[in-house]
Amino acid sequence: MRLHQAGRVFRRKLFAEAVGTFFLVFAGTGAIVINDLSHGAVSHVGISLTFGLVVLSMIYSLGSVSGCHLNPAVTLGFFLARRFPGREVAGYAASQCLGAVLASIVLRLMFPEHPTLGATVPAGTDIQSFILEFILTLMLMFVVLSVATGAKEESQLAGVAIGSMIALEALFAGPISGASMNPARSLAPAFVTGQLLPIWIYIAAPLLGAITAVGLYGSLHTDQPRDLKLDES
């Protein structure tokens, strides 16, 4: 009975991650698509705010269910910080990628004429985008570790801090790298449109950034690893 209940809770977490990542990619890349088709009506600022606001909203909607990672790099970071059980990492990452791909498929059906569906492609050199994505994810993961536990937010303002960081990074770095910070967000439109050539940047750099953020956080904070019981229920 206990094992059955644990499996049901885990499935609910996976569903929450898929739903949250679907909303993230649908709103965020949808803003890019609509901005292109409306000749700039949304604007770069509007796109940046859309990404930040949808993440903020999902944290308050789903944070108590799954922790609202919505990002394989964040899930990896929580695991390395010993705030998330290793046996759930693959399931979370798969659910996040599935939700993201479904969002891009819906956008493809809605806007078949759009060539990229908001895919992240370097505007400068590959190394510029790689360094940007690495540092952006490091910054984001550092903030996430500072304000959230992985299952329930430490502060009622956690969503504001995380959403604001995402909007800030998109505002200044978006024109060069796309400010993805999220392998699932980048993989989905690239997969649906077949533009997979630069995808290695948006997988490797965020993962490395998240790993580095865990080390940086650990060097600056002396708190003990958080109890995993919330994630293991």
Describe the structure.
The chain has 233 residues and is an all-alpha fold. The chain is built from nine helices and no strands. It has helices spanning 2-37, 43-66, 72-80, 89-110, 126-147, 158-177, 183-193, 199-220, 229-232. It is globular. 48% of the residues are buried.
CA-CA gap between termini: 13 Å
Secondary-structure arrangement, i.e. CATH architecture:
Up-down Bundle
The overall number of domains is: 1
| Overall 3D form | globular
Helix content: over 70%
Query: Class by helix and strand content?
Result: mainly alpha
> Which regions are unreliable across 5 or more consecutive residues at pLDDT < 50?
150-154, 225-233
Radius of gyration: 17 Å
| CATH class category | Mainly Alpha
For the biggest sheet, the summary is: none
Oligomerization category of the chains in this entry: single chain
A few lines on this structure:
The protein is mostly helical and 233 residues long.
Descriptors:
Glycerol uptake facilitator protein; 9 helices; 233 residues; disordered C terminus; globular
Task: Walk me through the topology.
Layout: H1 2-37, H2 43-66, H3 72-80, H4 89-110, H5 126-147, H6 158-177, H7 183-193, H8 199-220, H9 229-232
Helix pairs in contact: 1-2, 1-4, 1-7, 2-6, 3-4, 3-5, 3-8, 4-7, 5-6, 5-8, 7-8
